[in-house]
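CHAIN AND CONFORMATION:
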Amino acid sequence: MKSDRGRGALLWGALAIPAVCAGPLGLSEPRPAWLQAAGTTVLALAVATRHHRPAAAFAAAAALGLATAPSLFTISYGPALAAFALLMGRRSTRLRPAALAFGATALIGTAKIVVRGVDPVVEWLVLMGTLLFGAVFPWLAGRYLRQARELSAAGWTRAAQLEREQRIVADRARLRERARIAQDMHDSLGHELSLIAVRAGALQVAADLPDRHRTAAADLRAAASDATDRLHEIIGLLREEGDEVAPLGPAGESLRALVERAADSGLPVRYTQDGEEEERTETRRPKTAEAAKVAEAAEAAARTFHRVVQEALTNAARHAPGAPVTVEVRETAVVVTNGAPQRPGSGPGAGSGLAHLRARLEDLGGTLHAGPHADGFRVEARVEARVEPRTEALRPPHPTGPGRLAHARHRTLLAFGAALATGVLLVGGAFAWYAYSRSHAVLQPADFARLSLGQAQADAERQLPDLAASDPPAERAPTPPPEGADCRYYRASGELFVAVRHFRVCFKDGALVEKSVIPKAEARAGSEHEHEHEHEKEWVR
């Protein structure tokens, strides 16, 4: 808080120095002490409100500039105007307050120029140029600095967010790996336990088995079935709903080998195939990227088919013991069908295995149908030929954060360029009009000397220039103009940006009634009457 007050005091002192010293140094018209005190007080109030109301602080500085000069161009309060415009750009994120402040300043300045009755073109161009270079440009610079600061902060925030997202992705990867291990354990061990139950069931129904061995075989089958259920419950705790599943069978095991292993365990299963089955161990390197994608999709489909057959055989062994099972392999599909159970099996399962397989097939662009068929059950998995794994369409990134701020900075730079071009046109136009109006308002000393009092106005006007001086120094005239006369002022020289003498020519009732010379500001000395005759004689010579 103390540091902010100190910065405010330094800012007020820096802005008050030109306001107080411009008059004594001859850089502006002298002003009474009470006006200087009022101006510094307004500056102090503007400094105090620069944080919370930056637009009001700028409006106060603009009001001081307009009160001092209608064209807003003043040495006393020009630095304050630029400083508060810069602060308004840095503090305010809204465009409307700045637009209203600039628009109000332009309207009030234009109204004052119209009321003054001087040359409106030059004054208005100076007003617009001062507003543009002294207010709009600093405001754009402040806005650019604020956006750069926000962009830097957003970049660090984005970096922190990416770090958090990387940690989340790593945690998610660990959860998926845990789910994959859990699924693999459930599928592999469950399948093996189901085959043990099948073997025990086959042993139980053997004709030559003693009763005590038959009872032991029945207990073994029941224990294997209960172990499968407990395995499913335990693995279910490790597997989260919605986790990705990576079903994998034994490395290098084909569907035919899987079915033969189940048949060796006593499961009545029959294997049929359309054409030759492709071994999954074939890893010929694709020649193109497109072929690599197709091969990867085919490998994923083969692994999924292996899991579908494994899950279907496990379910048939558990829920339909003794039922004949048929595994039919086609080019793009696999169908596992079992008949009616020959003896009681375990109760209905949770169905999570088939649900995960269905989700996996849908990711590959395929389908899985499972349901009753005749007296038994059928599972059919299908994928399209040469299909690639389906991925979700990614939405284009929304222009937020650093991207949006960078876009805003680009717009600010464009606005700065447009304002610069406009300012160049205004300054160029003001200079051109300034040079034209002053070069065409020059009355040569010889023509001024030929004018005579009492001369007809029509004759005198033939010797006068096309334009009169738009900003004559009437206050420096040696005598007041004749009452009721129409007085015109002309420059005595065509020099620009320097003080020159002026001629005053007054007409009344159609005749020239007065002609006088207005000296330069630095050459005026003595009485007004002496100056009039001295300069008139000098120009006449």
